[in-house]
Amino acid sequence: MLYREAGQFKTTYAEDMAIFPIRQDRIALAILLGIAFIGVPLLADFDIWPFGSDYLLRAILLPFLILALAAIGVNILVGYCGQISLGSGAFMAIGAYSAYKLGTGVHIPLAWFDFAISIPPLPVLLAILLGGLTAAVAGILFGVPSLRIKGLYLAVATLAAQFFFDWVFLRVAWFTNYAPSGSVNAPTLDFFGLHVGTPIERYLLCLIFVTVFAVLAKNLVRGNLGRQWMAIRDMDIAAELIGIRPLYAKLTAFAVSSFIIGVAGALWAFVYLGSWEPLAFSIDRSLQLLFMVIIGGLGSIMGAFVGAAFILILPILLNRIPSELGVPLSTETITHLEFIIFGSLICYLLIKEPHGFARLISLGKEKLRLWPFPY
Amino acid sequence: MRAPDTSEILLQVEGVSLAFGGVRALRDVSFDIRRGEIRAIIGPNGAGKTSMLNVINGFYHPNHGAITFKGRTRAQMQPYEASRGGIARTFQNVALFKGMSALDNIMAGRTLKMRRGLLWQMLRYGPALAEEIEHRHRVEEIIDFLEIEAIRKVPVARLPYGLQKRVELGRALAMEPDLLLLDEPMAGMNLEEKEDMSRFIIDVNNYYGTTIALIEHDMAVVMDLSHRVAVLDHGVKIADGTPDEVKKNQAVIDAYLGVAH
């Protein structure tokens, strides 16, 4: 009975085009943001359950936020523009390593010209954003094949990007500043003189990034460019006919998507991992992101969050259930069980609702508007 | 119907031939479309009607011949160049963007008119928002015109066929085209839907002054709507003229009814 839009009259198109045109949704979002921005830090500050230890912040909320951001990026490309990509992990790596190089200073000696390009270490924020920009450029380059090849064939082409960059960051020592182990450490996280160190600070930093990028991405997908992307996804011939250039639409999708993924990669490396090696951005990461997007809902920004939560948090919960219930099972058995249950849950969900959680939620809302009547 | 006053030629097709391997879809076809008229292209199945439309808006490139649109002659062009030049089109099988609402589909038709770049759209503030709202106004006019207010937020995949056809017409109209190509706008419709669609086509022609070229199999509709009719058969133009002239033409009667050999 609470979820009704009766009596909410919109008198301008601007009101009608709002992200959440229904008041109850706006209230729900405000509450959610309030919890995320004020509630969580307060609870953590006073060590109130479940924030007694840093575990929840460090091991769940932080990766959830960063991967949700990456999933938004993947969703723009796969969900909105319909270009299947298996190279998301590579673009995260590009974001991470370019941010690392820019954050620690770039020195390229050009022996032939007796000259060297030197960039002093940049502030972390700038390094992260430029890391995203580098990923965007790489995304455009690897998006060019999409003008000729479609669907699964494109997926294979993006897979090439994945393996290529895995190799580059493993073998080209310049990217890791010649670290003998191949593992690198993030520069200290200072933002405008503020040092970000404790888990709660890291959490807030990522939360700000995710919120800003989610709003920007939402604006893009409901604007003219978003319509162009979806038009290309749904019927590229008709799209071309109403004046959409496939080149522009596809490459902007690749650029925007890779930018967001690159920023997420830089955050993943700097804020979550702290020190990392190329394996952190392997094909597993690409697949994980793709699953998040498919399960969360293709073509939905909110779906990226739900998908990230499902893929990331459910295994952790499943893993903890036996010990919480006091069932005596070995750690190995629990891990195997986790895989079995998680895998079958994915299958069940996709059979029941191929369009993911986002569709489930919107159907639920439609039902709720009419509840208790069926129609 | 009364023919339009102007005799300015909007589109001139000269000696167009098109072959796919050994199949000769069009053979030396010439005709013109005058500004402001409703021009029908008819013919039995496989006569080359849709191929003709595809040539006009750049999907197919003719092997021979030239097309002059608004005074500019060209042998080849890309579909998006055609759309930029002012040619809009609907398809025989509805080609809407299935995952988008009716409103978004029609808004997508305004793509060419929208100027703000990626960064402005990202912020969706100031000029970008103003542009979005301005185009929403124009789109709402079209929605009013086509009487689809109630379904504007519905994903088009959920709409019945007749309404989908109407949304597709709306998307084409949103481009404010000079020349509107309609590929079988009444296919698969019942009588009532056909009457509605005919009314919309006449209104578009009268109200917006849009030149329309349409392919249609329903002869009653064609003869009532169009000012002039071109008849194709096996890729060759066999007749051209007013509906009354075409109706009496022996070649046309033979093509449709068959002749004893």
Provide an overview of this structure.
The complex is a heterodimer of chains A (about 375) and B (about 260). Chain A is mainly α and about 375 residues long. Chain A contains 14 helices and 6 strands. Chain A is globular and about 80 Å long. The two termini of chain A are about 15 Å apart. In chain B, a hairpin with a 2-residue loop joins strand 9 (about 230-235) and strand 10 (about 235-240). Chain B has a 6-stranded mixed β-sheet with strand order 6-7-8-3-9-10, sandwiched between helices. In chain B, strands 2-1-4-5 form a 4-stranded antiparallel β-sheet, covered by helices on one side. Chain B has helices at about 50-55, 80-85, 100-110, 120-125, 125-145, 160-175, 190-210, 220-225, 245-250, 250-255; strands at about 10-20, 25-35, 40, 65-70, 70-75, 85-90, 180-185, 210-215, 230-235, 235-240. The mean pLDDT of chain B is about 90. By secondary structure, chain B is α/β, with parallel strands linked by helices.
Which key features would you list for this structure?
A: 375 residues; mainly alpha; two-stranded antiparallel ribbon; two-stranded antiparallel sheet; 14 helices; 6 strands; 68% helix; B: 261 residues; alpha/beta; 6-stranded mixed sheet; 10 strands
Q: How would you briefly describe this protein structure?
A:
The complex is a heterodimer of chains A (375) and B (261). With 375 residues, chain A is mainly alpha-helical. Chain A contains 14 helices and 6 strands.
- Strand order in the largest sheet of chain A: 1-2
Proportion in helices of chain B:
25-40%
Cα end-to-end separation of chain B: 37 Å
Q: Which oligomeric state applies?
A: heterodimer
Number of helices of chain B: 10
Find the structural class of chain B using helix and strand composition: alpha/beta
* N-C termini distance of chain A: 14 Å
* Secondary-structure element pattern of chain A, one letter each: HHHHEEHHEEEHHHHEHHHH
Structural class by sheet pairing and helices of chain A: mainly alpha
